[in-house]
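In response to reviewer comment 3 from the previous cycle, which asked for concrete evidence that the modeling workflow produces usable outputs, we include below a single protein chain processed end to end. The sequence was submitted unchanged, and the resulting structure tokens are shown without manual editing.
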Amino acid sequence: MLDPQALVESFGTLAVIGVGLILFIETATILGSFLPGDSLIFILGITLSTTLNFPIWLALPIVIGSAIAGSQVGYWTGKKLGPPLFKKRTRNFFFNEDTINRSNEIIERYGPRAIVLARFIPVLRALVPLLVGMVGMNGRNYLKYNVIGALLWGGCLLLLGWGLGTIPLVRENVELWVIGFLIVSSLPFPIEILRDYIKRKKAKKL
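The workflow returned the following structure tokens.
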């Protein structure tokens, strides 16, 4: 597992650009799913408030823009390459008819919320845009929820780290805060699944 703090420190004065590039790679392709996007944003926020001489007002659009751009690439990849792959590789482990049907079910059940909530789950950050593109969601609709998700994920996490970075307790226990933060940030999607499950159970009883 990559050490996010060591990564941010290794970029030096180019930390914001470096993190932006990593966020783009992580959200644009499944191959980048191993990258620690959440903790990188949080630690970058702390660094901006302590040692890095870089304005937060400029870091925000770079981080958010990178997240938006990466997911748009994932969406267009699914939109352009998905249908041919399904036609040519119908029995492949991933590219098969069952995958497209399950993707449709997810989009229909959770709607645009799935795009926003997926931001907070490492693998889903790259997988959902790809699948949404494959099932043919309207490009304008996807862009709208892509932007909302990037603002809530990238913008809020960066500001959270930036605001907490001035607190000595946070600076002296960065690793513990990152672990706690990762646990909390991964809760929205499971909570949404539980909420939907309870809602469907109640509907069956009526």
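Residues 85 and 171 are 48 Å apart (CA to CA). We consider this sufficient to address the reviewer's concern, and the full set will be provided in the supplementary archive.
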